[in-house]
Amino acid sequence: MELTELETFLKAAGDGSRLKILQQLTSGPVCVCDLTPLVGLTQPAVSQHLKRLKDAGIVTGEKRGRWTFWSLDQLHPLHDIMVGLLSRVPAPGRTVADLEAAGEKGCCGV
Amino acid sequence: MELTELETFLKAAGDGSRLKILQQLTSGPVCVCDLTPLVGLTQPAVSQHLKRLKDAGIVTGEKRGRWTFWSLDQLHPLHDIMVGLLSRVPAPGRTVADLEAAGEKGCCGV
DNA sequence: ATATCATATAAGCATTGACTTATGCATCTG
DNA sequence: CAGATGCATAAGTCAATGCTTATATGATAT
Fold first, then answer.
1. Checking CA distances to B8, which of A57, A88, B56, B82 falls within 20 to 30 Å?
2. In chain A, which residues have their Cβ closer than 8 Å to the Cβ of B85?
3. pLDDT tens readout for residues B50-74
4. Domains of chain A as residue ranges with CATH
5. What is the dihedral of CA A76, A81, A84, A86, to 10 degrees?
């Protein structure tokens, strides 16, 4: 692995909002509209973060109907390390699962 | 470990010049004047990178005479992970050891 | 077909970041 | 002591980043 590749990975992961997104993705695929309330940003902001993560090869997006479901890309050479790092951080206040448990149905109804 | 702490770590490590510095530090303490030719920047630039790394708790500097010797801080909670990441990257073209082997004595004469 | 919904992209703006040169401050050396 | 050396800090510049609002695209629903 080249130094610039490691740099790209670290730069992409080194952002609070993106870390929140990645943390949520460790629980499985999520669509943008479910991530938006989680990170407290507008939808375009979340999409841009996802693009950054995608360009770094950390996540992949699968279009299904109207929605794009984002997941951690398990093929990334540092995937396991990323998951390991995220596991050290306490779960966020409100995960997508929490929102659903509270009756606040996710936008994509999954 | 809090999310912001992880973010600080990733931001500090997510820079090519700083990665080169960290890579060199895995071989032991080095002074600024030896790092400067290695990263190809001016001395103030290197000092500023070191400050950034120090503020993140990744490195420590020990003043000895005229020189400051910088090392990886083994007390950092992510020290081992950092070393693991750096080990994935091929060694730079010219390490401090190489410079010395070529007869180019380090500035601090160590 | 028309409207709606989920998402992506574009443009603009404020902030941060990474450098440079210039300078200050210790510490050694002659 | 005077000068040189190693390093840190200050100030200024330019590019990159993270947001916003506005808009385009494409799929679904009516």
1. A57
2. 6, 78, 81
3. 999 999 999 999 999 999 999 999 9
4. 3-99 (1.10.10.10)
5. -70
